[in-house]
Design brief:
172 residues; alpha+beta; three-stranded antiparallel β-sheet; 3 strands; 37% helix; 17% strand; globular; disordered N terminus
C-alpha cells in the first residue's frame, strides 16, 4: 500500500469519494460526473493573438455545489424505483455503452431532471448540434443551455472526466 501513496498525484487513490456511497452503478456514475475533480481548471488559449470569445471553465466549487444540491435526488435514485427513470433515459440514448456517450447521457439526465426539480438554473435548449460547411460536417456543439439565474445562453462542451476504478488494483 505504501507504493500507492508514493505515486505522483494523478495516480493516487481518491479516498472518501462521495460517489462510492451509492449502490446502483448508474447513480454512482452520475454522482461521479457531478463530484469528481476537474480535468481542466482553466482554458488554455493556443491562439492568444486571434480575436476569440472568452472561454470559462467551471470551478471545482461549482461542481461541488451542484453535487450537494442534487444529493437528495441521488439518494432517491439509489434507493427507490426512480432508478428506472435514469436507466431508461440512458438506455434510450445512442451508443449507451460508449464512455463518451454515457458521460454525456448522465450529464444530460442531470440537466433535465435537475431543472424540472428546480435544483439548478440550466435549461437545455439543444444538444448535439451539428455544424456544417456546405454538406460537410465541421463540428458539433454538445449543449446549448439557458441559464435562468444569469439570463444568458451558454454553450457547454463536455470532456470525459471518468476515473476507471477497479477494486482489484488495491490488492496488487
Amino acid at each position: 500500500m505504501s507504493d500507492l501513496v508514493n505515486q505522483p498525484t494523478p495516480n493516487r487513490l481518491i479516498v472518501n469519494s462521495p460517489w462510492e456511497r451509492y449502490r446502483r452503478p448508474y447513480v454512482r456514475d452520475l454522482a461521479y460526473v457531478l463530484a469528481c475533480p476537474n480535468v481542466l481548471t482553466q482554458w488554455l488559449d493556443f491562439a492568444p493573438h486571434q480575436s476569440t470569445h472568452t472561454v470559462a471553465v467551471h470551478s471545482a466549487q461549482f461542481w461541488q455545489t451542484q453535487f450537494e444540491a442534487y444529493e437528495q435526488r441521488l439518494t432517491e435514485l439509489d434507493t427507490t424505483a426512480a432508478y428506472q427513470e435514469l436507466t431508461r433515459y440512458l438506455l434510450k440514448r445512442p451508443s449507451p455503452n460508449r464512455l463518451g456517450f454515457h458521460f454525456e447521457g448522465l450529464l444530460s439526465f442531470w440537466l433535465e431532471d435537475g431543472f424540472v426539480r428546480k435544483l439548478h438554473p440550466y435549461e437545455t435548449l439543444a444538444s448535439n448540434v451539428q455544424l456544417y460547411n456546405g454538406k460537410q460536417t465541421t463540428g458539433e456543439l454538445d449543449l446549448i443551455l439557458y441559464n435562468h439565474a444569469e439570463q444568458l445562453v451558454e454553450h457547454w462542451e463536455l470532456a470525459i472526466k471518468f476515473f476507471l476504478w477497479d477494486q482489484h488494483l488495491l490488492n496488487l
